[in-house]
# Entry
Amino acid sequence: MTENLDFLGQLDPDDPKQASQQIANKLRAAILTRRLQPGDRLPSQPDLAARYGVARETVKRALELLRAERLIVTRQGSGAFVRAQTQRAVELRPHIEAAFERPHVAIDFAGFSGETLRDALSEVLDKVRAGYLTPESIAVRVLISDMTAPMALPARAETQSDDPAVRERAERITRRAADGILDQVGELGDLGLVPSVTVEVRMHRASPLFKLYVLNREEVFYGFYPVMERTVSIKGEPMAIYDLMGKDVPLFHYAVADDDASHGTQFVEASRQWFDSVWSTIAYRYEA
# Structure
C-alpha cells in the first residue's frame, strides 16, 4: 500500500477541520469506495505522516477515529487493516501472511476439516521457504471432529440420522486436509527453515457447526456452517445428505484492541478460552 498513495489526496489548508479529522475522512472514503479492500493493510503511520506533512501522533488520532467506527483494526507490530467483518475464506490469506511477519506465529483452527486453512497456508509457507518471511517459531493447532464416531452431521437425508458411509466420505475429506497441514508445516522444521516448529491435530466427538481461526492469539475469524441438503456420490451411487457447507461462508472478524473492555478483545479472549478448554479436555490425538 505504500508505493502510491495518490488516491488518498492531500490535506486542504482552508478546511477548518483538524488534520487528524481530514486524514480520517480520506481513509474512510478509500475504505467505503473499496479503494482499500476488506483485509487490506493501511499505509504505515510514518508513510501517512510523510505524505501529509504531520506528526505521527496526528496520524495516530486519525486511525483511532476509524477504529472507533469499527472500520479498521490495529495490531501491534503489524499495522492497521481494513476490518473484515464479513470476509470470505479466501481473504484469510493476507491476515495469515501478516501473522507470519511476526517472530512467533501461533495459529489455532477449529472446524470441520481445515481445507481452507491448508490452502491459505500453502502460499504463505512458500514465502517462508523462499526466505521472504522469516519467523523464529511456528505453532499450529488444529481441532476437528472425529468422523469415525457417530455424528448428527453430516447425515443421510432420507433417514435424518447418522450413516457410516456418509461419515467415511467426510473422514476422507478431513484426513486429506489434516495430513496436508501436518506435512506442509512440519516440513519447515524438518528442513531447518524455521528454528522451532510444532504442528498438532486433535479430534473430538462433537459435530462441527462453526469454524474458528485464532491468529497469534490476537485476532479471530468466526463463521457458521450452514446445513444444506445435497446429493453426493457414495460408493458410486447418488445419495442425498445433510451436509455442512463451509466454502465461502461469511467470517466475522474480531481483534484485540488497546481497550481491554472492547467487544473485539472480549470475543478474542472467549475464543481462546473455548479452544484451550476443548483442546485440554475432550480432544485426543489424531493418528495420521
